[in-house]
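Narrative progress, year one. The postdoctoral researcher (J.K.) led the effort to move from monomer predictions toward full complexes, under supervision of the PI. The following entry was the first complex the group processed end to end, covering 172 residues in total.
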Amino acid sequence: METKKNDKGYTSETERGIWFTFSRRSFLTLAGWGLFFATLGAYLSQIFGYKGFFYPKVLYEPSPRFSVGEPKAFLENSVTTLKSRKIFVVRDGNSFKALSVVCQHLGCAVEFSKEKNIFECPCHGSKYYRNGVNFAGPAPRPLDHFEMILEDTGKLVVDTSKKVPLETELIV
Ligand code: FES
């Protein structure tokens, strides 16, 4: 291509200006690369756009081992429901137990009846004594009992990943 000077003193590669210097081949090549990078960008934004891409797909569950406070936080001869932890803390004098709220029939949450001094399941009527032993309804076994210890800090700690026999109690 030859460069010419027009009457205004500007130079261009042809008389008709720079916009007409692209051949059809150049235009299609440029359009092809543009399409390629646009597609690549869209693809990468799909992958990296999600925050979850950078983090492992893990369910964060609360620890099965947790503190429930000092013994004096529980009244003598009381049953305290810790709904968020799905346990009952049963205190009889200086004896403590941690019982599961999960009914052994089909897994409903049992409730403590103060008047009757028993646990009752609202789903199918299973009943449990205050120590967690089943005595009525379809529940096949007692409520789960969890390990409870008194830490050096003076706080009671329950571990719901460790089941203990029925008769286990923590004397404080
Ligand atoms: S789930 Fe409790 S009695 Fe059925």
